[in-house]
Amino acid sequence: MQLDNASVAQLREWESQLTEQYQAILAKKLNLDLTRGKPSAEQLNLSDAMDGLLQGNYIAADGTDTRNYGGLDGLPEAKQLGANIMDVDAANVLVGGNSSLTLMFQVMLTAYQFGLKDSASAWKNEGDVKFLCPVPGYDRHYTVCEQLGIKMINVPMTSTGPDMDVVESFIKADSSIKGMWCVPKYSNPTGVVYSDETVERIAKLGQIASANFRVFWDNAYSVHDLSPNAPKLASILEATRRHGTEDSVVQFASTSKITHAGSGVAFVAASAANLAGFKKFLNSCTIGPDKVNQIRHTRFLPTKDALMAHMGKHAELLNPRFDAVLTALGKAFDGTDLGAWEKPVGGYFVSFDTRKGCAKETVRLAAEAGVKLTPAGATYPYGKDPEDRNIRIAPSVPTVPEVVGAMEVFVTCVKLASVKQQLASLA
C-alpha cells in the first residue's frame, strides 16, 4: 500500500475495505492495554523467592541491623548491586527507596532549589532554567521539569542517540540550559542504544556548558537485553573522568523491572561532590531508606552473574511479545509509506511513527476498538508532538495472544487513519 501514488478511486476502495475490517473489530468488544511498560505477572513471579528469603537474619555483611534507623548511603552490598546494574564503582552509588523517578525528582529539586554544590549554585538563582529533551522520550521526565517550572527544548533523536550537533549548538548559544535528559540504553520509547561517539560527546558537554550543568542519565534498561549478543553501552563515568567533567553527569537506575516493580530498590551514581550535595538534602527529609528491602535484594541477586541469569528469564518472557509486535508491523508496513519503526533488542517499548498527522487519529480509533495505547504526544514535552506521528507500543503486560490481537487492531487503525487523511488531502 503506497498512499502517495494511489488514485482517489484506489484510496476509496481501501477505505471501504478497512472500514469493514474495523467494524468487525468493534463487534469483538476487546479490552486490551498497551499503555505502560510494566512487567507482566509472569515476570513478577520470577522474584517471588524474595518473600521469606531472610528467614530472620536481618544483619548485613558489615554488621548493620537492617531493621533499625540510619544508613543514608545504603548498605555496602546494596551499593554493589547498584554498581553491577549501572557498571560503575560502588563508591559512587547511593541507594534509595523503591523508585528511581523519586531520586530523579529529588536530585533535580536539590539542583534547582538548594544547589548540588552550595546555595549559590542553585538553578533558581539564574532566572529561566531550561532542559534539553531528546524526542521522542519518556513522559515522566517531562513531568518532573513541568513540576519545577523548568522549560523544555526538543532535541531530535537519531539512530545513535540525541543529535549531538543540535545539543552542542543549543548549549553554546544559551547559558540558561542547565541539563539534559538521557535514557542511554534502549531509550524510551525508541529502543536506541547511544553510540560510543555519542557517549563521548555527552561526557564533554561539561566543558562547554554553563556552570552547574547536569546530564540526568536514566539508565533504566541497562541490563534489560532481549538477546545475548546485545549492544554494549560505553561507560559515561569513565568518559567524564577522561574529560574532567565527572560532576556534569548524574546516573539513575532501579530494580523496578528486575524484581517486584512496586517494591524494588533505586540507585543514584554520581561524583563525590554531587553525592555530598544530594545527601545534605536527604539528611533533612529522611532518617534512612528501607534497608530490609535492600538486604533482601542483595541476597536474591548476590552477584553480577546472578543478576544477568535472572534477566535472561525476563528476556524469555518478553521476546515472544516483542516478536509479535515486530512481525505484525513488518507484515503490514514493510515496503509501504504508512509508517516507520525501530526494531529494539532490549528495553520495554516499540516506537512507531505514522505518517504526519495520523498518530492521534490512530490512537482514537484503537481506543474505540478496545485497545488502549499511550496518548499520542505523550513522548514529547508538554504532550505536543509537532508532527503528530509518534506512538509508543508497550507489549509487556498482555499475553502473547493478546499482543497478537492488539496488533491486528493497531495495524488496521494505522491504515484506516492514513487512508482517510490522504483522501482528505485530495478533496
Order of helices and strands: HEHHEHEHEEHEHEHEEHHHEEHEEH
Count of the separate structural domains: 2
Q: What's the number of helices?
A: 13
Number of strands: 13
Taken as a percent bin, the fraction of beta residues is 5-15%
Q: Structural class, judged by helices and strands?
A: alpha/beta
Spatial ordering of strands, largest sheet = 2-9-8-7-6-3-4-5
The radius of gyration is 23 Å
- What is the residue-mean pLDDT, rounded to a whole number? 97
CATH topology of the largest domain, what is it called?
Answer: Aspartate Aminotransferase, domain 2
Top-tier CATH class of the largest domain: Alpha Beta
Low-confidence stretches: none
Distance between the ends:
20 Å
Helix content: 40-55%
The major sheet is characterized as: 8 strands, mixed
CATH-derived architecture of the largest domain: 3-Layer(aba) Sandwich
CATH superfamily of the largest domain: Type I PLP-dependent aspartate aminotransferase-like (Major domain)
The best one-word shape is globular
Pfam families: Asp_aminotransf
Organism: Cellvibrio mixtus
GO molecular function, one term: L-aspartate:2-oxoglutarate aminotransferase activity
Protein name: Aminotransferase
